[in-house]
UniProtKB/TrEMBL annotation:
InterPro entries assigned: CsbD, UPF0337_stress_rsp, YjbJ_sf
Stretches for region Disordered: 20-63
The protein's name: CsbD-like domain-containing protein
PANTHER family in UniProt: UPF0337 PROTEIN YJBJ
Record-stated family: Belongs to the UPF0337 (CsbD) family.
Record domain CsbD-like: where: 6-57
Short name of one Pfam family: CsbD
Feature: compositional bias, Basic and acidic residues: 51-63
Lineage of source species: Bacteria, Pseudomonadati, Pseudomonadota, Alphaproteobacteria, Hyphomicrobiales
Protein's organism: Rhizobium nepotum 39/7
Length: 63
């Protein structure tokens, strides 16, 4: 994946995870809440990877 696609997928996972987590909390469904929290974390990691790729590319371009 490229840096942009990592960041987009990361944001999508982060949002979906937040929704799942909220629904799980509202309905008392601990499994759904946990899945949402995991997906949210996955999204944050993907976004960070995308940002890191951008930083590396920027550094290489400046050389």
């Amino acid at each position: 994946m490229g840096s942009t696609s990592d960041r987009i997928a990361g944001k999508a996972n982060e949002i979906a995870g937040k929704v799942k987590k909220s629904v799980g909390e509202a309905t008392g469904n601990n499994q759904l809440r946990a899945e949402g929290a995991a997906q949210e974390t996955k999204g944050k990691v993907q976004s960070t990877v995308g940002k890191a790729k951008d930083a590396v590319k920027g550094a290489v371009d400046r050389m």
